Amino acid sequence: MQRRHFLGSMAAAAAVQAPFVHTTARAQSTITLNGASQFNDDHAFTKCMVRFEELVKKYYAKPINFVIHKNSSLGLEKQYFEYMAQGKAVDFAIVSPAHMSTFSKAAPFVDAPFLFRDLAHWNKVLDADLFKGVADEVEQKAEVALIGYAGGGVRNIFSNKPARTLAELRGLKVRVQGAPIWSKTFAAIGMSPTVIAYNEVYNAIQNGVINAGENEAAGVEQMKFFEVGPNLLMTQHAITIRPLCFSTKTMKRLPADLQAAITKAGREAAAYGRQIESSEDGAKIDALEKAGKLKKVEFTERAQMKKLVDPVMEQYAKEIGADGIYQKINALV
Fold first, then answer.
1. What pLDDT, in 10s, does the model give residues 290-326?
2. Residue 234: is it exposed, middle or buried by C-beta count within 10 angstroms (0-12/13-18/19+)?
3. Which of 60, 108, 193, 331 has the most CB atoms around it within 10 Å of its CB?
4. Kind of pairing, strands 173-176 and 144-159?
5. Average pLDDT of 16-32?
6. Is the dihedral of CA 170, 171, 175, 181 positive or negative?
7. Between the CA of residue 116 and those of 22, 121, 241, 318, what are the distances in Å?
8. What is the distance, to the nearest Å, from the Cα of residue 39 to the centroid of all Cα atoms in its chain?
């Protein structure tokens, strides 16, 4: 894992430092757009980006090239977002909102734990476009547009030991995302959260630095977390929202008809991504369990867990100016 991270970092650095044939290259008649994914062809994010490519080509109806750099060959999502903000190396990618917090305090709220009751509620929130204010702030400050919302994976805790109750979760050393709300909510539950780079989680559990992590099924499968954390605690504490992002600096250099095609394709491709991930989620877990690679552990006190988290979420929403959004989300039935 560490070697892969090193090689990915070297590749990313080389991509930024080397002469980059960008979309504005006048010597070429065909525009080239570069995408990046941490995952392989089988992952829902990569499939979503491939659909984006197909739809842009359909709606633009002129020659255009796409290159999607897979398997973390250009680094991790945090780097992708930085590259898009700078207008170099990466033109589009799917990125966790947690990596946008430098530009928007409210961005991690989009993906906060215990925000949605279930997938039906999650879909209603997205259909109502309740995160438009957050998207506008990200685009203004980071110069990265959120052109669609993928995601739909239900996140659970993978652990090297089982836990069915809050008492059994107490003190569990769990890796969480970098946004502070994740550490605050998991600490309120009684666990011991720590921030570790995504590609270092496997080794951290293997070496006893932590006991657990949390992820949706696609991530657990792709990163083989089940090998070190074979107990999947069914906490269902979050449903992912993963924006499909596009560099505004790139967008401004493109012809108007291509900009329109990208905007339209972004919405449709992201909706396709949501359908894939939400439908594949349970099937992936069932397949891993049937293969004897992990064991689903029923968590019996989710309602009590949410009660512990609600005050933290309410305070957090006020601190970042998202209390209005939070109220609208809770009001949707």
1. 999 999 999 999 999 999 999 999 999 999 889 999 9
2. middle
3. 108
4. unpaired
5. 55
6. positive
7. 39, 6, 11, 18
8. 12
Domain boundaries in the chain?
2-331
> In the prediction, which pLDDT does 233 show?
98
Question: What average pLDDT is seen over the chain?
Answer: 90
H-only helix segments in the chain? 2-17, 44-60, 77-86, 119-127, 132-142, 166-169, 180-189, 201-206, 217-222, 248-252, 256-290, 302-319, 323-331
Q: What are phi and psi of 33, to 5 degrees?
A: -115, 135
pTM of the model: 0.79
CATH (one of 1.10.3720.10, 3.30.70.260, 3.40.190.170, 3.30.1540.10) for 2-331: 3.40.190.170
3-state DSSP assignment of residue 93: strand
Which residue reads 């700078």 in tokens? 86
Q: Judging by DSSP bridges, how do beta strands 192-195 and 173-176 pair with one another? A: parallel
